[in-house]
UniProtKB/TrEMBL annotation:
<protein>
    <submittedName>
        <fullName>Acyl dehydratase</fullName>
    </submittedName>
</protein>
<dbReference type="Pfam" id="PF13452">
    <property type="entry name" value="FAS1_DH_region"/>
</dbReference>
<feature type="domain" description="FAS1-like dehydratase">
    <location>
        <begin position="6"/>
        <end position="137"/>
    </location>
</feature>
<dbReference type="InterPro" id="IPR029069">
    <property type="entry name" value="HotDog_dom_sf"/>
</dbReference>
<dbReference type="InterPro" id="IPR016709">
    <property type="entry name" value="HadA-like"/>
</dbReference>
<dbReference type="InterPro" id="IPR039569">
    <property type="entry name" value="FAS1-like_DH_region"/>
</dbReference>
Length: 151
């Protein structure tokens, strides 16, 4: 089923997430962060941070916490069994910290096909803000594979 290019410009409902120290510590441990600035509040403050800093890719984890994250693809009639992660890009504007409440606002910025429509691409940009201040822009590409197309 072709993705209608009219979806470009559509926005998903915003969602907000509070950044919790415990999750930051867990993420730091899971990703092998050895610098105590990521796990120890006093080390973070000694390094000039007001709290534990949010590591770059952690914003993707917070965005995945959106309780309605499946609504977008379902609304397009896309079977999630045909979906692949096509890429992720992060652009940072300001540092986020434990205790911040971050708001995620996502918009479809492009739709295109390759291999005669066997693969369709949906590019979405998510602006992450804290009290209106732009923290980061996350750009993700979703690939939708047509299971009926010849390989």
């Amino acid at each position: 089923m072709p993705i209608d290019p009219a979806v470009i410009g559509s926005r998903s409902p915003q969602h907000s997430q509070e950044v919790e120290r415990g999750r930051l510590r867990f993420f730091a441990h899971a990703t092998g962060q050895a610098d105590p600035v990521h796990t120890d509040l006093e080390a973070a403050k000694a390094a000039g941070h007001r709290d534990l800093p949010v590591p770059p890719t952690f914003l993707f984890c917070l965005d995945m916490d959106n309780p309605r994250r499946g609504d977008f693809l379902a609304g397009l009639g896309v079977d999630v069994r045909t979906v692949l992660h096509g890429g992720q890009k992060f652009e940072y504007h300001a540092q986020a910290y434990a205790g911040d409440t971050l708001t995620f606002a996502t918009e479809v910025v492009d739709v295109y096909a390759k291999r005669g429509g066997a693969l369709e691409f949906i590019v979405r940009a998510t602006e992450v803000t804290r009290d209106g201040e732009l923290i980061a822009t996350l750009t993700g590409t979703i690939v939708v594979r047509d299971p009926k197309a010849a390989a």
